[in-house]
Amino acid sequence: MTATSTDRPGEGDAFPAHSLETPDGGSVSIADFAGRPAVLFFYPKDNTPGCTSEAKDFSALKPDFDKAGIALLGVSKDPPKSHLKFIEKQALTIPLASDTAPDSGTDGLAEALGIWTEKSMYGRTYMGMERTTFLVNADGTIAQVWRKVKVKGHAEAVLEAAKALG
CATH no. for residue 136? Predict the structure, then answer.
């Protein structure tokens, strides 16, 4: 199913409370960040050029996010084992989580956010993650959304917006 703009949460809406699997076998949800702002960036696939650049950019700025008291989390549909390899291969310092719910027959966080959409490449259509970033207030409401993200300069723009919440 392709999401429309009317079924996508936006600024002022509560961020959905889905649980995501972490590479260490644990789980994480927006409730784990209660009381502080959080940035959740959703990307299509581990170890692809754009996703690697984005993850490296956020990793480089992680100390600045930490200093500002802002939680940071990267999310894709890749399984936790893939995230472990991605973190190791690219020397990432950011935490990653897996939104693998559709594999278990249930809707996941990406579906709830309207960012699991129909895509097209080389004449082939398929379902995939729309590169999107959410800045979430300390109270769990969405402060800002960046949709169809262009990677270059994105992490810096998100950091500035997140600092402005402060």
Answer: 3.40.30.10
Our answer to whether residue 51 is catalytic in this structure is: yes
Look up the domain containing 56 and give its range. 43-165
Number of domains in the chain: 1
Name the active-site residue from 39, 51, 101, 155.
Answer: 51
pTM, entire model = 0.91
The predicted-structure confidence for 48-58, as pLDDT tens digits, reads as follows: 999 999 999 99
Question: What CA–CA distance (Å, rounded) separates 95 from 83?
Answer: 9
Q: Does residue 131 fall inside a structural domain? A: yes
Q: What is the DSSP string of 4-43?
A: -GGGS--TTSBPP---EE-TTS-EE-GGGGTTS-EEEEE-
Kindly list the strands in the beta sheet with 38-42, ordered across the sheet, starting from the edge strand earlier in the chain.
27-28, 20-21, 96-98, 71-76, 38-42, 132-136, 142-146
Which DSSP state fits 96? E
Tokens of 153: 């300069």
CA distance 127 to 75: 16
